[in-house]
Every structure is written in structure tokens, then in C-alpha cells.
Amino acid sequence: MYTNMTAGYQAYQKNKYETASPHKLILMLYYGALKYTNQAETALAEGNPLSAHQHILKVQDIIYELIACLNEREGGEVAQNLKNLYLYVIDQLVQANIQKSAQPLREAKAVIQSVKDAWETIGKDITAGQNYA
């Protein structure tokens, strides 16, 4: 029975990602980055640098995925500015990992949070615009 429940959950998770809009997928990445940043910060506070390191690497993977999603040719200056922000976040994550310090981690989290908030607002504006079309 446990195997059936696990398979059902995995199918649900797979379907959630396969049916999500591109906007929603990016939003999921931001939420994941924030989740792992919080976990890394907690691990540092608890004196567990190995766990913090593992969580920071997950955040870095997500940020690199966000960079890969950018269309710099069509996105122009906006895409370039986002790339610069993402690279700054990567730098802060590397510093947090090297120094085992929460301060650069908090800085990275603040940038991710700001970009996520803006992305959510864009989604609301798009949805509102579709309702009037």
C-alpha cells in the first residue's frame, strides 16, 4: 500500500510541473530557492555547516537554472539585469559557503525575495489582463 501511495504522490508531483505555465514554473523555482536558503540559514545557526553547504548548493542549482531560462536576445536589458542579479546571488551564496556566514546568505535571500515578489506581481497583471480580453 505504501508503494501505491508513493507512486500516486510522484504522479501528482510530475503532473503539477508538466501542466504549470512557464510563469508558474519560474515562480516554483523562486519558492524552492527561498526554501533552501532558509534551510541553509537554519543549518548555519544550528552549527551544521555540512547541511548548510548541501542546501546552498541546491539554491545555486536553482539560480543557474533561472539563468538558463533567460532569453537575452528577446529580453534585452531586462534579461541582462536579471542575469546580473542572479550572478550577484551566486556570488553571495559562494561567500556564505566559504565563510560559513549567514550574512551573505541573507543578502542572497533578500534579492531572491524581491525578484520573486516582482514576478508574482507580473503574473497577477497578466492574469488580470486576460480577464479583460
What brief labels describe this structure?
133 residues, mainly alpha, 5 helices, 91% helix
Structure description:
By secondary structure, the chain is an all-alpha fold. Helices cover about 90% and strands about 0% of the residues. It has helices at about 1-20, 20-45, 50-70, 70-100, 100-130. It is globular.
> What is the CA-CA span between the terminal residues?
47 Å
Secondary structure class reads: mainly alpha
Low-confidence stretches: 9-13
Q: Profile the largest sheet.
A: none
H-E order: HHHHH
Number of strands: 0
SSE inventory with pairings:
Layout lengths: L1 H17 L3 H24 L3 H21 L2 H28 L2 H31 L1
Quick overview of this protein structure:
Belongs to the FliS family. The protein is an all-alpha fold.
